[in-house]
Amino acid sequence: MTEIRAIVSDFGGVLTSPLIGSFARISEDWDLPLEALGRAMQTVTERSGAHPLFELECGRITEAAFLEGLADALRDELGRDVPMHEFPDRFWAQLETNHELLEVLVALRDADYRMALLTNNVREWEPRWRSMIPVDEIFEVVVDSAFVGMRKPDPRIYELTIEQIGVPAEQCLFIDDMDVNITAARELGMAAVHFRETPQAIAEIHALLGRPAAA
């Protein structure tokens, strides 16, 4: 078994509470079916020729443009206005730091594993997510899709992260909550843990590293 020397972690949904919880709360508060949001996203895609979330997370459109496009599509879909300008504050208000997993990553950093953060994110949201965890104390490499112009599962963003961390893919352990992102990492030769819940992820991390469960 190849020795793991580096940990590459996602942020949202791994180092935070599940993202779907935030979406569900907003959906309930606004009486906004998630299916309607999905259809509105598709409408914007058809109008612009590009998926708006992908464009946002690659830094090619602004948060304001993204929200405005969705608001227009939702107005057409629902026949009423949805206050999408409130979405970022409401979304982030629901997220909590996953302190239990964060403690595991701190312990791995202290055990001399190389540490990288690889996140699909939004340029304007950087102050929000950085305020939730001590990013620079834990991670020596941070790769944010919005600043590098590509997003998971594009192999190039994994390759960039691997290059910056200076460890071969086969010696990297990747942690993410999205199956498609896990698949891409494994295709590049990385070991991977598909985060579903914290105890499961911690147990799998320890198993892959050959470390005691209480480490």
Q: What is the CATH C level class of the largest domain, in words?
A: Alpha Beta
The overall number of domains is 2
State which percent range the strand residues make up. 5-15%
Mean pLDDT: 96
Might you state the CATH topology name of the largest domain?
Rossmann fold
Order of neighbouring strands in the sheet with most strands: 3-2-1-4-5
Give the helices and strands as they follow along the chain.
EHHHHHHEHHEHHEHEH
Biggest beta sheet attributes: 5 strands, parallel
Low-confidence stretches: none
| Number of H- or I-type helical stretches | 12
What would CATH call the architecture of the largest domain? 3-Layer(aba) Sandwich
Shape: elongated
Characterize the quaternary organization of these chains.
Answer: single chain
Strand pairing plus helix content: what structural class? Answer: alpha/beta
